[in-house]
Amino acid sequence: MVGDGVQRRNLPLIGVTGRRWPADVLGDRVAAPIRAAQVDLHFADYSRAIVLAGGLPVGLSRDAPVDAMVRRIDGLVLSGGADVDPARYGQERSSQCGTVEEERDAWELALIAVALTAGLPIFGICRGIQVLNVALGGTLLQHLAPDVGDGHPRFDVPREASVHSVKLEPGSLAAALYGTEVQVNSLHHQAVDELGSGLVASGRSPDGTVEALELPGSSVFAVQWHPEMLLGAQPDAGFLWLVDRAAKASKSRC
After folding, report:
1. 13-59: per-residue pLDDT in tens?
2. pLDDT for residue 153
3. 254 labelled catalytic
4. C-alpha distances out from residue 83 to 8, 47, 128, Å
5. Exposure string for 174-184, b = 16+ CB within 10 A, e = fewer
6. From the candidates 126, 152, 164, 188, which is the catalytic residue?
7. 194 belongs to the catalytic site
8. pLDDT above 60 (res 3)
C-alpha cells in the first residue's frame, strides 16, 4: 500500500486549459441568483485520456499566474474550443469566423510563451493546434465549408465517429505515434494556414488540410482531430507521449 501511494504521488501532473462561460449556460441546474457567475469548463474526455495514459490531470484556471502554473505542472494540454481571434494573426474577422474569446486567447498565448521557454511538454488538440500555430507567428484559415474537400466540420455525427484519414509523414513524431495513416474524427471549421516559426506539418488530410504539427528538437506536438474522444480500452498514443515526456521532465527538475 505504501509503495502504491508513492507511485500515485509521482504521477506527472498534466494541466488542461478550458473555457470560461457564464453559469447560465447550465440553465435551471443553477439557481437564478448565481447564473451571472462564471464557471470554468473542462471536458471530462481530456481527463480520462490523461488518466488512461498514466498521468494526473488538473484543470487550469486563468486567475493564477501563468509562470507559477508552468512551474507546478509537468505537461500541458491545449484543449479545443472557440475560434482564435483573427486579429491575433493580423487578419480582419470574416463573417464566417465563429465566436471568439479574447480573454482565453490572451491567457493561452501567455501560457504557451512561458511553457515554450521552460521546455514544458505541450500537446495541442483542435483549437490547441491552431492557437499554438498563432503563438509562433502562423495564420489560420477562418472557415472550411462542410461541402468542400473532406468536409471537416462534421457536427452531424457522433464525436467518436471517424470520418476521414490523415497521412502522417514517415520519420515524423506523428508517424512514430500513430503510424503513417490514421482515421480521425473532425469537429473543426478552421485550420492551420501559414505555419508558425519552426513548426513542421507532419500530417495532412486528403484535401491537404494540416492535421498534425510538431516542433523539431522540442516536446511540442499538436493534432487537429480529437483523440480524447476516440478512446477504447487502450490509451491514445499522443497522450502516452505527453505523459512520458512529462514524467521525464519532472525527474530532470528534481
Report:
1. 999 999 887 778 777 787 777 888 888 889 999 999 999 999 999 99
2. 86
3. no
4. 36, 22, 10
5. bbebbeeebeb
6. 126
7. no
8. no
pLDDT digits (tens, 9 = 90+) for 188-214: 999 999 999 999 999 999 999 999 999
Q: Of residues 108, 211, 214, 228, which has the active-site annotation?
A: 228
End-to-end CA distance of the chain: 24
For residue 79, CA distances in Å to 6, 123, 137 come to 29, 9, 19
pLDDT digits (tens, 9 = 90+) for 143-173: 998 877 778 888 888 889 888 999 999 999 9
Reading the block at residue 237, the C-alpha cell is 498514443
Cα separation, 3 vs 175, in Å, equals 36
- What is the Cα–Cα distance from 214 to 222, expressed in whole angstroms? 6
Integer Cα distance of 124 and 242 in angstroms: 10
Average pLDDT (218-244) is 96
- Please, which residues bridge with residue 37 across strands? none
